[in-house]
What we know:
The protein is 22% helix and 27% strand. The chain is α+β, with helices and mostly antiparallel strands. It has one domain (2-50). A three-stranded mixed beta sheet has the order 2-1-3, with no helix packed on it.
Amino acid sequence: MRGWVRNRRDGSVEVQAEGAPMAIAELRAWCEQGPPGAQVLRVQPSQLPVTGDDWFEVRQ
């Protein structure tokens, strides 16, 4: 899996990820659940062009 994740000022979380279809499906399922104590209101997936990055980072 490659891409990035960041917390936004409005309290939402933004993720851009690319990888094997199964890995993306697992990430989406985790996002729909969220970590303990989180309140997930919705997940809005979208298709973006592939970046070709070879890492995953947490952005500030």
